[in-house]
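quick one before i forget lol
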Amino acid sequence: MEKHLIFYLMFVPSLLLFFWGMWLRISVYLQGTLEGAEDATHGKKLKIFLKRGWRGFWARPGWYIKVLVRDVIFHKKLFGQSFYRWLAHTLLVFGFFATFIVDMIKGFTTGYLVELSHTFPILSFAHVFETGAIRPFLDFFLEFFSFLILIGCVLAIVRRFILRPDQLRTEEEDIVTLLFILFLEISGFFIEGFRIAHPEVVASKVYLANFTPASANNWISFGGYFVSLFLRGIRMDANFLWYFHVVPCLIWFVYIPHSKLLHIFTSSVTVFADRSKQTKIPQEGTIINVKTSTEKNFCLTKNFIVDNECVQNHK
């Protein structure tokens, strides 16, 4: 069976399970009451919240972007508490954000626009992302940001299992999450190193990609190139390695809504709530009580987010 088809047969169900898991978690928050729509379904409440959030963002996009970068991704508050924790957190969060953005650009241009360009010549510019001057930089930044994630993960593991500060509690979920991330990063560099060490793997297109010239691997794929130095005399089934990395990636993707990794999303909401309070946004209007049975309560409103209660401004 063609490898692209195999991938999508695995990816589509994984994507559906991810959204299903996210909906289960979001529905917990939607158990709160919304004035004027007390009997609304969860779907209706979500639609209202998203609409207000969308309007609130476009009312002050600069403020939201500033808070996202300064307080969510680079966690300014944590920097003042512990440089070590801040460094591990920033490498992980920034690494994931940056990797996601670059991977989406690469996947959309090389996976879709290039194919469509055969039918619509106007899209032929996309080939620069596949084999042109832009491709080496996409590959380099993917390598670099993945390396940041690996370093951040190692720092987190050292702090949790070696340094073990007194106030830190380690649960099974923490262990699973960190080891999962560590495995995905190491296996990714391993199969990349195997690909570089064995040019025939590229020729057979086992890994579903066009690659930059081998002469550039030492700086573009610096992590994989280092690993390749130890794999040139080793023979393995390249297809097995592909599944060995891709299947756990999809399992991890499905696992996110049910793990502590969800706090990447929920903590962002809390940060926007706290910063909204600090900027003393006018709180005129109707108070909407939000009470849920699990996790920290939050709500999304037209202009801002606050814990345990929403304040809707009338305009």
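fyi The CA atoms of residues 128 and 134 lie 6 Å apart.
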